[in-house]
Amino acid sequence: MKTLLNIIWVLFAGLALWFGYVIAGVLLCIPIITIPFAIASFRIANYALWPFGRTVVDKPDAGAGSFVGNVIWIVLAGWWLAIGHIVTAIPLFVSIIGIPLGIANIKLIPLSLLPLGKSIVPSDLAFPAYQRGPAA
């Protein structure tokens, strides 16, 4: 099911979002000081292209540096990428079949605004304690 959702996602929203994140990453590579933001943009581009089956978790060691970086990120690229998510979510919500994809698109907005201090991991590794079953 994840593969089918990802294929539909790529066709209707993922490719456009991937392109937006890649363009932001390339532009952020121009000034050398913003290369860490470009790396974050490329990391999210990969996630925005094929999101189902993966999830975003907070890094436990993220501190004040990621907060300051996120503020700079919002000014440089975050607002534009969040608007891209909204623009691609609207047509998904208009079609009945695309409503789950539109919801997934809206869930990506916090990551597009605050990417630093987050990790993208496979869904089955995000919460392993819940998947072990009852304690023996």
UniProtKB/TrEMBL annotation:
Residue ranges annotated for the Inner membrane component domain, each copy included: 4-54, 68-118
Domain of life, source organism: Bacteria
Membrane-crossing segments per the record: 7-24, 62-83, 89-109
Any one cellular-component term (Gene Ontology): plasma membrane
Pfam hit, one: YccF
Keywords: Membrane, Transmembrane, Transmembrane helix
Coiled-coil ranges per UniProt: none
Stated name of the protein: YccF domain-containing protein
